[in-house]
Amino acid sequence: xxxxxxxxxxxxxxxxxxxxxxxxxxxxxxxxxxxxxxxxxxxxxxxxxxxxxxxxxxxxxxxxxxxxxxxxxxxxxxxxxxxxxxxxxxxxxxxxxxxxxxxxxxxxxxxxxxxxxxxxxxxxxxxxxxxxxxx
Length: 135
Description:
By secondary structure, the protein is an all-alpha fold. The protein contains four helices and no strands. The protein has helices spanning 5-16, 32-44, 48-72, 77-95. Helix 2 runs antiparallel to helix 3 and helix 3 (48-72) runs antiparallel to helix 4. The termini are far apart. The model is unreliable at 103-135 (pLDDT under 50).
């Protein structure tokens, strides 16, 4: 469901942690590609606890089903392979996740950040960095 409870929960989590998306974006905050870019940014800025929360609370609970449908209905082998790569990546991240991914705490109590959290994604800028694995 678009802009349902999960989107609102993600929006609140981002606000609580000082994360803002570029205001000119047309996609919802919980767009799969946006969440992967946010995960990469959290890794790059060494915010491992927030990375784990993003995966456990906002990506893993629904991405398995999403990617299964995506791969099954891919109209081109490129997209099928892309979906399979995402499945393998998320499976590896899930295997090493330090927190349960189906449970959310009733109160989010973020730890102090070492960096001011600002995440801006502009589609016209290519990603040129290599991101390290956070977990």
